[in-house]
Write a structure and sequence with these properties.
Layout: H1 36-45, E1 51-54, H2 58-68, H3 75-82, E2 85-88, E3 93-96, H4 107-111, E4 125-131, E5 136-140, E6 151-154, E7 161-163, H5 168-177, H6 180-183, H7 192-197, E8 203-208, E9 223-228, H8 229-242
Antiparallel strand pairs: 1-2, 2-3, 3-4, 4-5, 5-6, 6-7, 8-9
Amino acid sequence: MRKVLTAFAFSFFTLATFSQNKMRPLDQLINKTDPGWTLVQEWIRNAKNNVEVLPCDTAKAKDALYKTQVTTRSPMGAIIYSTGGLLIDGGWIRVLGSGSRKLNRTLPEWNKGKSFKEFGKQPSFLLVADDAAGGFFAINGGAFGSDAGKVYYLSPDTIEWEPLDLTYSAFLNFCFNGDLADFYKELRWNDWKTEVANLNGNMVYNFFPFLWTKEGKDINKVSRKPIPVEEQFSFTLDMRKQLGLTKNGL
């Protein structure tokens, strides 16, 4: 298991935000007096890691914000409403927003059928980002235990949901300023930068032999091919099920 990351002192985010019996209208979600995007922009300007802000379509952004039911005062709402998503470190990490050409997935649509069945329902987890190696980041809504609001990482080299002890805001700080080379030291191969630069945000790498096997421990000695991220997520959950690792359907 990766070492637990240090949590930074940013505002906490909990999935209680999503616990809506009745979905709030868009005008109640758009905060014009204290928009979170101003703060997120400041974080991005001061980021040590490369951050690419993807453009968004206004209509799609409004639709995604409404379906997610978070306000633009929150960092998540700000990213959904103001961006098509964020590409971190040359596209290695993809933080979901309202969708764009390079990352044609919205946060709510990506989660529908995975963490909830209908928009406005309380999810047991919420997928918020993924990476080129086929790892997935999710906020705990109860599926992983009592630490609601904290981010977990489904690592392709362990296929375990690993607690990072980070809120969503702290997770963004990790993306912007964290030591990604150290965190991903076992998941990055020679020339990964060149390959990932040409990888669409809806694709991830699938490795064989599998990275969680003895034969797949050296990332530079396994074969890899890009596959749809949807296929990789389903494949990983199926492997967890076959290996008896599944908990609460994950």
